[in-house]
## 1
Amino acid sequence: MGSPRLRLVVLAALLVAGGVAGWRHLEAQGWRLPAALGGQAAGAATAPQASPRPAPPPPVAVATEPVRRGPEPVEVLANGIVVPEAVVTVRTRVDGQIEAVHVEEGQMVRRGQPLFTLDSRLSRALLAQQEAQIARDRALLERARADQARYQSLRGEGFAAQQRLEQATAEAAAAAANVRAGEALAAQTRLGIEFATIVAEMDGRLGALPLRAGNFVRQAENTALATITRMDPILVQFSVPERWLPDLRAAMAAAANGTGPAPAVRVRADNDAGPPLEGELVFVDSAVDVQTGTIALKARFRNPELRLWPGQYVQVTLTPRIEPDAISVPAAALQAGQEGRFVFVLENGLARRRPVELVRTVGGRAVVRGALGGGERVIVEGAQRVADGMRAVDRGGRPGAPGDAGGRPTADGPAAPMPAPPHVSAAAH
């Protein structure tokens, strides 16, 4: 027998060898060391796993509006000034003292309405004298005509009778002329008395009244007693560039021939909350202003509510023609870049950039030229946050926007396909 130390060494070696053999036997049977003791779970892969792919960014929420294709008016904007169609200055046609003033400053008057009354007593006294003179002349005319008739019956009785007939005929003619002269003087005096009552010569609004009752006015002094301005209808004068002259002439010729509408004109005054007033173009100047390159126009407007005032500045919109097939988008959809203007179209959940050319703006919409079709939806809000090909979703749920499996828009863009159910294989027993 060996020493005790040798026996212990041999025994320890036998125990280690038996433990290793037993563990390998258990591992072969499917046993694994618990994970808490550093072992792997059953069925775990031993190969290194790849890192997961990053999730795509969520789509940008935008608002869209449809592209419109169809008739669009061609509008020309200008600044205009309101001018009256007529202004009458009231003056006296006879001399006299103002006896009464029948109106107030700024009053609306009608044609024939009395404005002032002058003192006409002297003219009435003169008329009475003239009427008396006419009565005397008529009496003399009757006597002369009687003498003429009497000598007419005696003209064949001698030379003297013929001479008296000629004298009586001349006296009768002179008496008739005196009557006509007196009647003419009386008519002139009556006209002076009529002129003593000064009336309005047209409908309109009175201006300031510089003279009051008691003032003496003379015809020779040509003093203005008042002014009357016609307010309804009223004119608006404005100018447009000469390049619009062919369109205007064509539209006015079509209106004259009955083959098309006349050029439409709308005006709006500053701080006027009402709808624009619509009128008709009535005047095109005969020459283009060579200094400004513009042509002067006038339009007539009905003004019963006095929304337009002479001398007032207004905004004018002239429509010389209507473009039959125009492409228009909301003005907010138009973007500007280094290569020009463009819009973003929402197509199958993606923002697509389309270059366009701005033609004009009409009432908040931009008329453009470009590869746009009617009904396509352009981005009007959120266009600054998207780029060409970026995912976008219409927050209003309009057609053309991405949706989920139920057709509703989602915050994550187009819905991912539903995963297939797990395949379960039948195990043979």
## 2
Amino acid sequence: MAAPSNSMSGSGPEQKARFASNTTSFQKKSRSNFISIPGTRPSVQNGQLIVSTGVTSLDYVIGGGLAVGTLLLIEEDKYDSYSRMLLKYFLAEGVVCGHSLYIASAREPPDEILQELPAPILDDIASPRSEEAQGKLGDPDGQDSMKIAWRYQNLPKVQTALASSSRFGHYYDVSKAMDTDMRQAAKCTSFYLPDEVTHSSAAESSQMNEGYRALLRSVQGAIHSQGFDGSTPQKSRNVLRIGLQSLGSALWGDDICCSESPGHAAGLTTFLYGLRALLRSSLSVAMVTVPAHLVQSRAIMERVTKLCDTAIALESFRGLDTEANPLYKDYHGLLQVKQIPHLNCLVCEVPDSKDLAFKLKRKQFTIERLHLPPDLSDTVSRLSKPDLAESAKLLSSGCGSSTPGKKHLDF
């Protein structure tokens, strides 16, 4: 009788080779395609490479940070103090992360803006003791916890501070200037309009004026010469942060702030269209401030907003009657999110609260949820006894109108 075949046995070399080839047919998907650049990370919502604006609460509001290749528009406040501060935060974050900078201004030399960058706080703001204290305050089972009604116990607590669970970006002290050695170590390209504009370019036929044409050529040259568009190989990849101050003002030669029917109505929009094309094809991100309260035509401002990826507006209380209002004593202005980009998804990341306010503390600029405290003072207006009597008389006459001649209701 023939011996049984050993085909089911695993001891043969052919069987082992076949088993090894079957086990390696499925490979684990790797995430090596993400670009590793200091100061960047992939977005949780859409996987886009993002950078921090320098203000952690602003990063939380716009969906985690600024996506590389996008444009952030900031509508300036009336006196251009807080929008200028956001621009300095944006540039300071680039210095700390080792990014390259590009600064353009028509009002002041870019070197003066660099000298006013806030100093970074390298240590953690929240210490373990403070976190432990906050945990005890938020513990409903603690011995000293406030006893509230059961119907309000499970409602979400009001949190004014805006912050994500994972820290991204750095903190800065606006009361101190950045160290000179750290500031000089950053690679920065400057564009000061009075020194850059030449009269020879005035004869060119374009919808953009002389200043915008020179600025767009300068930005394109900086992106190409430093290899941010991939034309020149870089030893280590980096991000270019572009900060443009007060575009659309008369200092740039634009007249959209001077007339409702300006001669260069499409100058700023044409420039933003070209700038956005440069950003899309390079490792760069831009922040642009525009004096929206001075633009005469609302249609032009709406087109400017649509050409930007992210748009926020700052409304300062300074010089207004709202500044003396005791309800807003803890804030310095309101912040409105006008536009958030749709990147690699059908819907955008909408902030959970639209009532936002900002305030400048002694050392830090923060954005919080607008939460008005209850008025518990003794000066609250109440209905007086004559008013209550008059209201009761009107109510009784209204109820008795259907049954005339009867003082009491019969049940």
## 3
Amino acid sequence: MIPTLIATFGLASGLAITYYLFKSPNPPELDLQKWWGSGSPVAVVDTSIRPFKIEFNYTMIKDLKERLHNRRTFTKPLQGIQSEYGINTIYLETVLDYWVEDYDFKKRADLLNMFPHYKTNIQGLDIHFIRVKPDVEDVEVLPLLMLHGWPSSSKEFDKVIPMLTRPRVGYNFVFEVIAADLPGYGFSEGTNKPGLNPVQIGVIMRNLMMRLGFEKFYIQAGDWGSQCATHMATLFPEQVLGLHTNMPLSSKPVSTLKLILGALVPRLAVDRKYADRIYPLKNLFSYLLRESGYFHIQATKPDTIGVALTDSPSGLAAYIIEKMAICSSRIELDTPHGGLQHLDLDDVLDTVTITWMNNCIVTSMRLYAEGFALPEVQTVHDIPTYVPTAAINFLYEVIYQPDWILRDKFKNLVRSTVIESGGHFAAMQTPNLLTDDIFDSAVEFLKFHEKNKRIRDQNY
């Protein structure tokens, strides 16, 4: 009797675990017009699309430079230490001096304004976006929504937009690019209401594209933008024609189990050439433990650290620069720059300046807290997406997952590329490689839809 009971319990437990690991829940019920603006929804919604120009105004610049000039003396690094304890404050001094003396605010604003900028109100929030239409004839134009992550903005894409909107030999299509600032980032308005998580941002971005007249479109995204885009592909598969991501990630429970099981026989779990990107797991966990302190703070107490970062441009620069450096090359802690040399300093200071002038560091960091606060996020994570997906994995991306794990979430992974260089801010660091992969991925998306069309036609 006892052995039978034990066997029955074991079988039941196994079935329960299997169900949990492989379950595909129903999508959450979402209000697709949920109001995120101040107060209650307005009776008449402003649907206008307004031209917008970026200006680094004199008052902001004067105040910023005064604060930088009056900064306190920083504590020097320990003897023999470069960036192992965080940003090298001697190096930081040179960056701040450059920001005050040599960073050309007008020139940088003019460069950003080479693209048409707009704002429109979506669900109570003014959303900023760049929209560049290609000047072409006899070439198919594919609408492409581009979404960034933290601590970035649509500025991140200023190197790739010109390449994406120009025809290239061997391709019979080009892109119309819509690069949007996530709510609370860059020039997009943040909310004063809790709950604006990546799922809800996905709804906002879908509504933005519909406002612009796109019923169907493609998406390219990284970091938090990739999370929002993945949720869009999951929830709106009839509208998202293809998803290209430079931070591919499956957050399903079975994916975590596979990651752990793969540690037992790494050569069976991942191509031997790339095994050291995730195995041995102790190295991965050591890296994540070393570099994820900011993540935990922002996911729990963003408003507290936000006080210091809002009040001090030196502190804001140090905080953002250190993370941009490590995510561009994690192996250069023994240098003063900590990895920042792989990015153009003016691009980095554009990001810091945009964050400072819009006072949006707190509203951007809150996404870390919101991303884990509501069960609807994990629910959508657990639902597979059948939208054709392309993944590109740069060398120093935060985390790498092999295709056999990615397919837990992305059932139609039509292209997967592994790059032996680059990092998290791909559009800034390796714009040519990213652009090439977007074009090649679009070829696969078009093939996927043509094949499905032939199958449908044969069945009628």
